[in-house]
Amino acid sequence: MPVLGLLLACAAQAPLAAPFEDSMAQRLLACTGCHGPQGRAGRDGYYPRLAGKPAGYLYQQLLSFRDGRRQYGPMNTLLAPLSDDYLQDVATHFANLELPYPPPQSRAPAPADQQRAQALVRQGQAQRKLPACQQCHGEALLGRQPGVPGLLGLPRDYLLAQLAAWRLGERRSKAPDCMADIARRLDPEDIRALANWLSAQAVPAGAKPAPVSEQPLPLRCGGLP
Description:
The model has no long low-confidence stretch (mean pLDDT 88). This protein has eleven helices and no strands. The chain has two domains: 24-99, Cytochrome c-like domain (Cytochrome Bc1 Complex, Chain D, domain 2, Orthogonal Bundle); 107-213 and 220-225, Orthogonal Bundle (Cytochrome Bc1 Complex, Chain D, domain 2). By secondary structure, it is mostly helical. The longest helix is centred in the N-terminal third of the chain and has 13 residues, at 55-67.
């Protein structure tokens, strides 16, 4: 068969390429390479879930990466040329995804860690000016609109890394930086217990962030919308 005829025969049998879909889902495939399909979280336990988090929280984190308050080279580079409006569109896209959470990967912590974590989550510790986690992150720890993230459904290693980054000043938010203040008041044992306990909790089906609180939050947080 002549070469031209062979090429035409092969072309006729080749599957047609899928048409390009100019949508946010198509554009944000660059994000899901690390953060998992549809932003469900990466497999390595470090890249967190994006799907279903409050849009205000996601937007503030994108701004922080773009503007240098959070340091991670690939994110800083990827977001550097993007406008505020486009970052808001990215945040809204992921916030509107309602996807199930996988079962927790961590086992139930030791009783001492469990007791320590539950006390911090539910009561806080007034003498150290530590509010209960539930006061900001919602009674079910699923986050609160418009800009407080959930604490459940996050891997242990990610929780450890982020709390340590707040504590050491490697992660920052707009002043007043409430999470940095809280993290600096936590002992390393507190951080370990919280990460062990939170990462072992299952996320209920249909979980969503709590609505906007009618009561003021216990601390002023510059990173909130």
